[in-house]
């Protein structure tokens, strides 16, 4: 079933160049999911209390029209018909009833008691599913341009304000973190991105950020001290007119 929730952009959701922070849109998407599950138990809190949690694997978002401060954002989200151990969820974001963004994500449901993934057919959820998909493809593996050198551009330490109830950096934090390292960020706005969430980033860990670009697409990864990637990101940008 589809679920709709409305939010209002705050001044903190807008970057200094006037564009919406993509992480803000992901946070409203995440909150709509939480509300749907709260209204159709088991909720995310119920799952957590039973040793279960949805862990985000991949996200693709495509933005069509700009948001402005104090806009009303209507999030329409639904769980897609899924199989195996991959749960697919979609959303559409509307600005004043006009489609402004599509989101499609893949998730894993983890049982922390057994340290195993829960298969779709074994999951007991109350949210229902739909076959309908938004007009964007399922998120794929981020592939960096061949023969490109990824250059270090900075580092990020995971602090208390970054982590969520699962005790790792919340998935909505990564895209805004990466925006801090975008070249000429003052004159750019994000028009789309794909994120691969690879390993959890925990409190106190240091992430080294690496970057390359190819045309209007920028590529990043965040690496832990042992070289393991935490996230790989492909981000499409356009100039602010």
Features of the shown structure:
241 residues; mainly beta; Thiol Ester Dehydrase, Chain A; 2 domains; 11-stranded antiparallel beta sheet; 3 helices; 11 strands; 13% helix; 40% strand
Structure, briefly:
The protein is mainly beta and 241 residues long. Helix content is 13%, strand content 40%. The chain is globular, with a radius of gyration of 18 Å.
Overview of the molecule:
The structure is a single chain. The protein has 241 residues and is mainly beta. It contains three helices and eleven strands. Strands 1, 2, 3, 4, 5, 6, 7, 8, 9, 10 and 11 form an eleven-stranded antiparallel β-sheet that branches. A hairpin with a 2-residue loop joins strand 4 (87-95) and strand 5 (98-111). The radius of gyration is 18 Å and the shape is globular. It starts with a strand and ends with a strand. The model has no long low-confidence stretch (mean pLDDT 96).
What's the number of structural domains? Answer: 2
Outline type? globular
Beta-strand percentage? 35-45%
* CATH architecture title of the largest domain: Roll
Structural class: mainly beta
List the helices and strands in order: EHHEEEEEEHEEEE
| Tally of alpha and pi helices | 3
As residue ranges, the low-confidence spans are none
**Number of extended strands:** 11
Over the alpha carbons, how many angstroms does the gyration radius reach?
18 Å
Provide the fold topology.
Elements: E1 3-8, H1 22-39, H2 44-49, E2 52-63, E3 72-79, E4 87-95, E5 98-111, E6 116-118, E7 151-157, H3 173-179, E8 188-197, E9 206-214, E10 217-223, E11 229-239
């Amino acid at each position: 079933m589809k679920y709709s929730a409305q939010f209002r952009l705050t001044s903190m959701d807008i970057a200094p160049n006037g564009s919406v922070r993509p992480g803000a849109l992901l946070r409203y998407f995440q909150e709509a999911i939480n509300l749907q599950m709260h209204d159709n138990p088991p909720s995310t809190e119920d799952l957590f209390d039973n040793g279960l949690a949805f862990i985000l694997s991949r996200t693709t978002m495509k933005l069509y029209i700009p948001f402005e401060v104090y806009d009303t954002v209507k999030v329409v989200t639904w769980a897609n018909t899924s199989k195996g151990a991959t749960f697919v969820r979609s959303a559409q974001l509307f600005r004043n009833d006009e489609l402004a963004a599509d989101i499609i994500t893949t998730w894993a449901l983890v049982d922390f008691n057994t340290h195993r993934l829960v298969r779709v057919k074994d999951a007991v959820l109350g949210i229902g599913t739909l076959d309908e998909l938004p007009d964007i493809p399922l998120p794929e593996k981020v592939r960096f341009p061949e023969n490109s050198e990824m250059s270090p551009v900075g580092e990020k330490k995971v602090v208390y304000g970054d982590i969520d109830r699962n005790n790792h950096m919340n998935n909505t934090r990564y895209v805004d973190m990466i925006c801090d390292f975008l070249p000429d960020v003052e004159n750019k706005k994000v028009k789309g991105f794909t994120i691969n969430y690879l390993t959890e980033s925990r409190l106190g860990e240091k992430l080294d950020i690496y970057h390359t670009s190819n045309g209007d697409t920028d590529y990043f990864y965040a690496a832990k001290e042992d070289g393991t990637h935490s996230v790989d990101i492909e981000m499409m940008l356009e100039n602010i007119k």
